[in-house]
Structures are given as C-alpha cells and as structure tokens.
Amino acid sequence: MTEQTRWIDLDGAVNVRDLGGLPTRDGATTFFGRVLRGDNLQGLSATDVRRLTGELAVHDVIDLRTGVEVQQEGPGPLTREPAVTIHHLSLFTEVGEHTDVEADVPAAPVDVDAVLPWQEQKPDERHGGFYLNYLQDRPDSVVAALRVMARAPGAALVHCAAGKDRTGVVSALALEVADVTREAIIADYVLTGERLDRVLARLKASSTYAEDLDSRPADSHRPRPETMASLLEYLDENYGGPLGWLTKHGWSAEDSETLRARLRP
To answer: How far apart are CA 128 and CA 191, in angstroms?
Structure first.
C-alpha cells in the first residue's frame, strides 16, 4: 500500500490519514480503518461528516487541542453527531480558566504560543524540543488517548490543529506499541510535510492561529525526521523505550495487548 493511498481526502480537512499499511518489526502490516490522524476538524462539510461516521466508521474523536482552542474555535461538526464520542485530552497543563498560561487573566488576548506550540527548535535539538514537554506535563492525557484508540468500538480519530506535533507524538507512541518500525514511524511523522502549505493556509483563515502563523516563515513549521527521532531516542535512553515510559505512567500489559490487537495482526 502506497503512502498516497493512506490519505483521506476531505472537503474541510487536509491532513487526515490512516495509520494502516505500516510495516512492523516482525514483518506484519498495521490494519486500515482502526486509527486515523488529522488536523483541525472545524471545517468539515456535511459530506465529510457522513463519510467519517459512515464509510470510515469513526466512533471516537480524540481532541488534543487546549481548552482555549476549543473555546475560540467553537463546536465542530462532529460534536453534533450522537454516534460520535469526543474525548478532549489536552497535552498542556491547563491551569487558567481561559488560557494555558500560568496567569489566569480572562480579559487578556489568547497566547497562541501557549495553545499552539509550533515547531521552532533547530532540527537537531535534543529530546524533540517541546515534544518532551507533552509527556512531562500530561502523561495522563497521552495514556488516556491510547486507551481510547485501543478500545474504540469503531475507528478512532486523533487530531489537534495542524495534525503534526501533538497528534504526531501520540500517533508515534501508538505505533511503537504496535511494534511498527522506527523508520516507518518517523516517515509517518514527516508525511505531514507533503500537505504543510494547505494546513497553514487553513489555519491562517482562523483568528485563533492567524497572527502567530503570519509572524513566522512557513518552513519553520516543517516536520523534520531529526525531531521525532530525538524524542524516541530520549525515551530509549531514559526509559528503555516508549513502552517503558508508558508503563511508568500507568499503562498496563493488558493495555498493550488490546492496542496491538486493534492495530496489527
């Protein structure tokens, strides 16, 4: 199965793809139709919703955005679907009522650097830059997201704003549990680069993200293999691998078995 056939083309989202078709270390291939990853779902058309809930059987949506993003963007089309369960699992410590920043100042403008942490680090920055912060700040959300993937009665769709950083980290950990090769995990992360221009164009149309995006060159947002590789290497060196990190934060052998059974033969 080629990379291109993994893409799910929708009217209102541009970075949606299936985690199926990826090679595992023992020569198997991940199942299609079990876990999808995507970008902002606010603009889904009625046709998109019918396809996701019908043909693609999406039952659970894992929303990794912050409370600020959800509040600013408003209810998305899938929140109105009774057959779809939304799991809001921010990867930031949400200490303020209105923002993720430490000071709770209701009248202050949204700090987009706090709610949408675009990749500014150099490609060789150790630990995958701020990706490690996701794991340090919200291990509860990471573990909960993987458990939804493992136990969803239909397909699970995990997303954030761009479908690159937060979604990339959670997807990478799920694929690690399924014993997908490192090369394939990193390649899947980098694949968002093929649609980066379209992702940025969509987000710039939203007042939540536009000012921040307009202030930075497009190439600074490009996913680089070194970023994901350095995060995974850090977990190898400090926890014996991503599974060791998950175990430290309450992930069980039963969780692993259930997620593997969902994702691969």
So the answer is: 17
